[in-house]
Amino acid sequence: MQIDVYDWENSVGFSQSMEELIGRIAAFNIKETSHEETAKCFAVIARTELARRLRIYGGGGCEKHSGYELCTEPGHCLEFGLLKINISDRVTKAVEDTGNLIITFDGKPIKPYYHYRCGGATENSENVVGNRITYLRKVFCQYCDGVDDKDKDKFFSLEELERLLNVKIERPKDVYYDIKGIFQNLDIDDQGRIKSLNIGGKFFKGTEIMERLGLNSTRFNYMPVRFLINCIGSGHGLGLCITGAEEMARRGMDYKEILYYYYTGIKLEEMKLTEKNKPLKGKIIVLDGASGEGDSYEGKGIGGLREGEVNLNIVLELENLLKEVGAEVYLTRSGQEHLNLSERAEIANEVKPDFFISLCQSIFPNQSASGTEAYHYREDKEAMKLGNIILDEVCKELNCRNRGLRTADFYMLKEVKCSTLQLNLLYITNPEDEKKLANPEMRKKAAEAIARGVIRYYGI
Ligand SMILES: [Zn+2]
Ligand SMILES: [Zn+2]
Predict the structure, then answer these.
(1) Which residues have a beta carbon within 5 Å of ligand 1, which is an ion?
(2) How far apart are CA 287 and CA 377, in angstroms?
(3) How close is the Cα of 417 to the center of ligand 1, in Å?
(4) pLDDT of 18-50, one tens digit each?
(5) Which ligand is in closest contact with the Cα of 120?
(6) What domains appear along the chain, each with residue ranges and CATH number?
(7) pTM for this entry
């Protein structure tokens, strides 16, 4: 499936496959050296985040850039800079290996919080985001112990604290402090001179301190102006502890165990379209993948590619995609069988579909002819509408020439008693087109583009 993303930096929209997007989000959150099970955790986390957002799964899309599912604007849908992230083989494999799994609670995708290191225990959600989220409970994590955080200590001067927190801190005036364990037992005379004190438990005379610290006078005071803030762990502590997950993986636990450990009471389920998001529910569609074995010719490319095989492949993929969005789908052939035109038309007329889509390739003596075209019967307005949309989607996706929509008197167009479209996907007699048709990835893309066209046609 292709996702429409708005590239905020360059102010352009583009589409990216679901798998690639999951890969980028996952890669963004882990190190190159992360364990493969950690990579799988993040593939599932990324897929879950997408399932929450994409409209087809019941999400709202990007509220800021209408028409797009996601954007890269800083602080909005996706991490800024995410599009430049490389997807390593490990991540690609993690995306594949986790199938279609997402993390759900009560049947809905969760908001999968994660952080770098919890420091011993994760947090309850109410302590961080203010409300109780059942799957974000405190769990003890002994897995991230002993990992040193860089920059865990930070100094702040009073001035810095004032600036960063936008507060005014009153400076103490001539106040002597007993600071337990540091400055204690001050003996001060009535002139305000320090006669003696204990520092770190050791007795010093005021004059001794003056000499050793190079002070101008024994009349001194001290005040806290610089603080060392010492951090345990890294991040807000909600949900999955990345450092802990990595250690669990190293100890042999798999990504499922890790996710179940950090997210309380969740399930790992297949990402599914919800009923209300099955836009083609109630539609009946017949798909006809031409076998390429007509009475007078055999559909073969110049490189020997068989038209029948290509069409069967695409039609089977398309069948899955359309069923996924709720359509009732019938095929005129689902195997190598060869049916003649009237048999195929009969199948269509029996199920009384809303649409009949026939798929084949163009064959032409001149090898230079290439591209995709579609045919409809006379004033079949619906076929014209669907044809234009599908041509648009397919030609964009396969980067081929759009040869447009044409009327024709073909047998199938005439004899099938519903709106009927014949899509001539590429020229099998053109070397470049044949190469595309032979590529399984391209066939998949073609099926996706056609499915998108059908969904768009029905107004979704
Ligand atoms: Zn957005
Ligand atoms: Zn931890």
Answers:
(1) 62, 64, 71, 76-77
(2) 17
(3) 45
(4) 899 999 999 998 888 899 999 999 999 999 999
(5) 2
(6) 2-129+236-273 (no CATH), 153-230 (no CATH), 278-457 (3.40.630.40)
(7) 0.57
